[in-house]
Design a protein that fits this description.
- By secondary structure, the protein is mainly alpha-helical.
- It is built from four helices and four strands, in the order ααααββββ.
- The protein is flat, with a radius of gyration of 22 Å.
- The N and C termini lie far apart (64 Å).
- The relative contact order is 0.10.
C-alpha cells in the first residue's frame, strides 16, 4: 500500500485482517472508508492473481540460478508482496548475504620530525 508521502507500507495478512476488522466495526469517515476499500481490494488481489506470479517468479529464479534457489540463497515467501502491472509483476524476494566482517587494520603512527 502506498502512503501519501509516496512511501510503501507493508502489512502481513494478520495485520490486514486486523485493520479490516477494526474499520468494519466502527463508523468510518471518508479517509477510513478509502483505506478499507484499498485493503479489501489488495487482499482480493493477493488471494487471486498473486499466487500465479509467485509461482512464475520461482520458476524464473530456478532458470537463472537453480543452485541459489535450491540452497535458499534466494527465497520468495508464500505471502510475498506483489506489484502488478499490465505487463507483469514485480515480486518481493529475499536474497541471502553472508555476514562478512571487515578485517581490522592497524594504523601506523606517523612520527613528526
Amino acid at each position: 500500500m502506498k502512503t501519501e508521502t509516496g512511501k510503501y507500507l507493508y502489512l502481513t495478512n494478520r495485520e490486514i485482517a486486523l485493520v479490516t476488522s477494526l474499520l468494519k466495526t466502527k463508523k468510518r469517515n471518508e479517509d477510513e472508508e478509502s483505506l478499507l476499500n484499498t485493503v479489501i481490494y489488495q487482499s482480493k488481489l493477493s488471494s487471486e492473481s498473486y499466487p500465479k506470479y509467485r509461482k512464475a517468479a520461482e520458476e524464473k529464479l530456478k532458470k537463472i540460478d537453480a543452485y541459489a534457489f535450491d540452497n535458499e540463497e534466494v527465497i520468495i515467501d508464500p505471502d510475498a508482496n506483489v506489484s502488478e502491472t499490465r505487463e507483469g509483476a514485480y515480486i518481493h524476494c529475499w536474497l541471502w548475504v553472508d555476514a562478512d566482517k571487515p578485517k581490522k587494520t592497524r594504523k601506523r603512527a606517523v612520527k613528526n620530525g
